[in-house]
C-alpha cells in the first residue's frame, strides 16, 4: 500500500509539475496587467493569434483595455495598445528590454544563422544613410533601368506593344532583383567579354534567384512559427541550402559593384573569425531583411495610385516638375534619366503617398525580451509590473495606424495625409488631445528602428518614378476591388494581397 501511494504521489507531482510548466498555475499578481492564459495549456491563444493577429488583439483590447498579458506558445506576452505610452517601451534600456535575444532565436530558426559576437551598427548606419546612401541609390537606379527598360518591346514610339502581368508579381520581381544586384554586385564584363552580356547574366541570374526566393517567402510565416508540415519543412531546408550557396562569400567576391555595406558586413565577420559557411547564412539573412518587404510595398504603392486618379495626377505632376528642374527630357532612344538622391529629396507628395501606403499595409509586431523584473508606466499614470522572462510587444497597426482618432477615416487611402497645408511633411497627430510621437511605425522605433529605411524608401520612389516616366500602364479591370491582405503574414512587415491584380504596361518612348 505504501509503495502504491508513493507511485501515485510521484505521478501527481509529475502532473502538477507539467501543468506548472505549461502555465496552468500562473495568476495575475497585484500590480500586473490583466492576464489571459487562453483555452489551451502552454499554447494559450497562439492558434487565434496566428489565424488573425489584428482581430485577436482588438478583441483582447475590448476585453482588457490598453495593456494585457496573454500566453502564446509557452511565452507570456504583454501587449501595450496605447500609442501615447509607446515611449515607455521604445526608450527603455537594453538591460531591461532587449530585442536581440528574441531576434537571435528567430534568425537561427529561419535562416540557420547564429553568432556569439555582437557587431556594431555603425557600418550599417554609415552606408545606409548619408554619402553611402547616395552611392547605393545610384546603383539601384542603374539596375532598375537594366531590368525595366532593356527589352520591354520593340517598335516605334507610336506602336509599342502592351505586356500583361500580375501587378504584385511584376512589382515584387523588379524591386527585389534590382535591390539584390545593387547590394550584392553585378557580373563583371571580363567574365562575359562584354558589358551587354554581363547585364544579361544579371537579368537571368536575378530572375532565377527571385523565383526561388518567392518559394521561400511563401513558407516563411509558418517556418517562423515552427509549424511547417514535413514536406514543406524539407523544402525550406532545400531552399536555405540553395541560398547559402548562391549568396556564398566566395561567389559574392567574384562580382563587381558590391555595395560597401555588404562588403563591410563580410569584413567585420571575417575579422572576428567567423567561418565562411556561417557568413553565407548571414548573407541570406541580409537579402531577406533588405528585400523581403520592399517589393510587396511597391505593389501596394503603385496599386493605390492607380486606384486613386487624384493621387496619380499629383505624383505624376511632381515627377515631371523634378525632371524639368534638372533639365532632363525623356525621348525615344534618348539617354536614360539620371535620378539622383538630391532629386528624390524634392518629392514631398510622393513621400506622403509612400507613408500612407505603409500606414495601410505594413504591420510588424515589435517584440522585446524582459531581462529583469520591471515596471511600465502608462501615459495615464498607471504603472504595471512585468516579470523577467516574459516579453513585451507593440502592434502599431491596430494601436495607432488604424486608430480613427489619430488618422480619421483610417481605411481610406489619402495620399496627402502626411502633408501640411503648405506642402511640407506633416508630423502633428493627436489622440485624446495630446500629440503623438509614434503616429506611424512601419520601420519600428528607437534603437531597433530599421537602419535600411532610407534606402528602402528610395527603392519604392525610384520604381514609381521610372514607371511614371517611361511607361503607360493601367488595370485590366478599372473597377478592380482592393484585395484583402493575407492574414497569415501579420507581424512580419509588409502585407501581401490574397490575390494578384492583372494590369498591362508598355513603353511610352
UniProtKB/TrEMBL annotation:
Substrate binds at residues 109, 293, 391. It is a single-pass membrane protein. Residues 1-17 form the signal peptide. It is found in: Endoplasmic reticulum membrane. InterPro entries: Cyt_P450, Cyt_P450_CS, Cyt_P450_CYP7A1-type, Cyt_P450_E_grp-IV, Cyt_P450_sf. One of its GO terms (biological process) is lipid metabolic process. Belongs to the cytochrome P450 family. This is 5-beta-cholestane-3-alpha,7-alpha-diol 12-alpha-hydroxylase-like. The gene is CYP8B1.
Amino acid at each position: 500500500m505504501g509503495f502504491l501511494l508513493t507511485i501515485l504521489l510521484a505521478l501527481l507531482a509529475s502532473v502538477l509539475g507539467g501543468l506548472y510548466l505549461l502555465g496552468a498555475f500562473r495568476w495575475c499578481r497585484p500590480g500586473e496587467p490583466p492576464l489571459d492564459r487562453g483555452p489551451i495549456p502552454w499554447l494559450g491563444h497562439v492558434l487565434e493569434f496566428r489565424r488573425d493577429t489584428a482581430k485577436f488583439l482588438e478583441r483582447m483590447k475590448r476585453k482588457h483595455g490598453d495593456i494585457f498579458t496573454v500566453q502564446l506558445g509557452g511565452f507570456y506576452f504583454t501587449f501595450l495598445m496605447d500609442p501615447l505610452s509607446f515611449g515607455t517601451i521604445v526608450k527603455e534600456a537594453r538591460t531591461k528590454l532587449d530585442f536581440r535575444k528574441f531576434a537571435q532565436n528567430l534568425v537561427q530558426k529561419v535562416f540557420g544563422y547564429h553568432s556569439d559576437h555582437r557587431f556594431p551598427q555603425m557600418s550599417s548606419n554609415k552606408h545606409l544613410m548619408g554619402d553611402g546612401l547616395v552611392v547605393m541609390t545610384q546603383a539601384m537606379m542603374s539596375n532598375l533601368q537594366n531590368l525595366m527598360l532593356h527589352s520591354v518591346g520593340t517598335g516605334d514610339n507610336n506602336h509599342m506593344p502592351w505586356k500583361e502581368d500580375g501587378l504584385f508579381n511584376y512589382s515584387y520581381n523588379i524591386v527585389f532583383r534590382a535591390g539584390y544586384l545593387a547590394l550584392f554586385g553585378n557580373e563583371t564584363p571580363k567574365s562575359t567579354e562584354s558589358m551587354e552580356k554581363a547585364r544579361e547574366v544579371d537579368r537571368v541570374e536575378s530572375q532565377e534567384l527571385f523565383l526561388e526566393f518567392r518559394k521561400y517567402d511563401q513558407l516563411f510565416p509558418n517556418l517562423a512559427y515552427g509549424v511547417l508540415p514535413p514536406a514543406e519543412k524539407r523544402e525550406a531546408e532545400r531552399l536555405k541550402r540553395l541560398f547559402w550557396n548562391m549568396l556564398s562569400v566566395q561567389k559574392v567576391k567574384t562580382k563587381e559593384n558590391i555595395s560597401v555595406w555588404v562588403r563591410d558586413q563580410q569584413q567585420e565577420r571575417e575579422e572576428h573569425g567567423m567561418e565562411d559557411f556561417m557568413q553565407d547564412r548571414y548573407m541570406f539573412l541580409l537579402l531577406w531583411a533588405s528585400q523581403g518587404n520592399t517589393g510587396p510595398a511597391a505593389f501596394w504603392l503603385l496599386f493605390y495610385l492607380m486606384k486613386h486618379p487624384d493621387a496619380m495626377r499629383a505624383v505624376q505632376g511632381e515627377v515631371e516638375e523634378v525632371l524639368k528642374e534638372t533639365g532632363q527630357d525623356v525621348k525615344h532612344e534618348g539617354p536614360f534619366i539620371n535620378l539622383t538622391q538630391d532629386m528624390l529629396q524634392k518629392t514631398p507628395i510622393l513621400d506622403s503617398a509612400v507613408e500612407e501606403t505603409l500606414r495601410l499595409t505594413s504591420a510588424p509586431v515589435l517584440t522585446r525580451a524582459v531581462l529583469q523584473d520591471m515596471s511600465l508606466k502608462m501615459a495615464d499614470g498607471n504603472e504595471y509590473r512585468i516579470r523577467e522572462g516574459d516579453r513585451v510587444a507593440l502592434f502599431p497597426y491596430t494601436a495607432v495606424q488604424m486608430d480613427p482618432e489619430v488618422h480619421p477615416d483610417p481605411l481610406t487611402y489619402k495620399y496627402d495625409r502626411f502633408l501640411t497645408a503648405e506642402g511640407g511633411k506633416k508630423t502633428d497627430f493627436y489622440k485624446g488631445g495630446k500629440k503623438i510621437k509614434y503616429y506611424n511605425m512601419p520601420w519600428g522605433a528607437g534603437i531597433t528602428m530599421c537602419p535600411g529605411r532610407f534606402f528602402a524608401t528610395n527603392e519604392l520612389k525610384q520604381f514609381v518614378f521610372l514607371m511614371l516616366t517611361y511607361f503607360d500602364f493601367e488595370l485590366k479591370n478599372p473597377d478592380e476591388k482592393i484585395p484583402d491582405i493575407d492574414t497569415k503574414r501579420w507581424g512580419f512587415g509588409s502585407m501581401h494581397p490574397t490575390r494578384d491584380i492583372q494590369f498591362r504596361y508598355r513603353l511610352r518612348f
